[in-house]
Write the structure tokens for this entry.
Amino acid sequence: MITVEGMAAVLGERGLLKRIEGEAKSEKVEWLTCDSRKAAEGTMFICKGATFREEYLQEAVRRGASSYISEFSYEAGHALTGLIVTDIRKAMAAASAVYFGYEPGIPCVTGITGTKGKTTTAWYLKAMLDEWMAEQGGKATGLLSTIQNYDGEKWEDAVMTTPEAPALHEFLAKARDNGLSHVTMEVSSQALKYKRVRELRFQVGIFLNISEDHISPVEHEDFEDYFSSKLSLFRQSETACINMDSDHRQRILKAARKSGRIVTFGRHPKADLRYSDVRMLEEGISFRVKCDRFSGWFQLAMKGRFNIENAMAAIAAGYVYGIPLHCMQRALARTRVPGRMETFRSANGKIFGIVDFAHNRLSFEKLFDAVFQEYGSCKRIVTVFGCPGGKALNRRRELGLIAGMFSDHVLITSDDPGPECQGEIAQQVRGYVEMTGCPCDCIEERGEALQEAIRIAEENKEKTMILLLGRGSEKYQKIGGASLAYPTDSVLMQNAVEAYDVAGKTAKAAVAV
């Protein structure tokens, strides 16, 4: 329990409190939130964000808020106790940690950052930890990911990759109270830049890779801002797990000195955990891993050579935690991640489909490499994707050029257009695709674009790979100011392939008659 007076003292001790407006009451803080819709009687409300409006505080007051934290004074809060602070982001992280009783290491938290592969790595590591816990009669471990979250009691669809500090600490408190030993979480560059995870101590911090992404006026002003935000993970990590095959490896290793220990992984000969002898299988991939503790074979249930990198990151974390080799092997052999390298195939074997979350330059490059290496029997590639509105503006050029270079036909469609006109986004991307000489069409509705891809594949009369990229298992699209329910790419692909199969059977039956 903490009082309003006690919270003021905490913020004061950390040099964040400028002044107190109203009376520093000894009444208990009954709830802490930055979401006015979740305020209740006795809430301490946090006024955060560049787009914060006083109406949010007014709503919180109507719902029963009795105090607030802010960088500014508001008329709506004149009857409340106001804790006016120097940095609302730092104050929000500190207040959240104190209110929810955060204790480093209870549970152990693994933080994963990188431009590509965070979700798959998180699911791989959770599966390893779960296998280990089950062997000891323990509970399944926690997960905070782009797809779903698990706190030891229930699974919920994720709202954002890394939640704001109050929601994050509420989640960790639930995981602790539910007796979970570990939580694996994705850590976005935005979460690091805007101090959502500032108060956390990661027992393991994983750095997967880096390439230019999320560059826009509302995200990162340039690559340096993006990269520096990612590297700050190491200041909060007890052990850093580093991909030795990543671009900018030397800079990453230098920054990792801020952590207590460094463990490296990859194909690089100097990596602590090294992989070799990669073999492509009918379903999945196998490879050998050597380190000072073991030498063993691993098999992945998912295709895509780039998933070895994700698996190696999870294996490195498992090595740090002391997970037995056989538990890691069993977990990787059965784990599939929704919306990541999901494969589909028509009954006649003419159409192959892949649904993947690939949505930036690095992920596009690695995905196309995997398709050429692992699906050589497909003579043509039709790619369906879109770019978001209002952010990550560099993707329009990069993804347009990459898709155009490696595809035989590209269909530009919607993917979270948000505040922008979808047609204008599509035309910008189309211009870059057509620079490569690749045929390109714009079809706004995602399902219709996929149907057109099927039609093109059928017309070509060769084995064709259809790539549906960018959304994976996401269930909503941001259109205008609203998030609207929308079928996942997996559902769209499944339905499209099944419709193609039914049409083929009908045509054969008609010929037979």
In short: The radius of gyration is 25 Å.
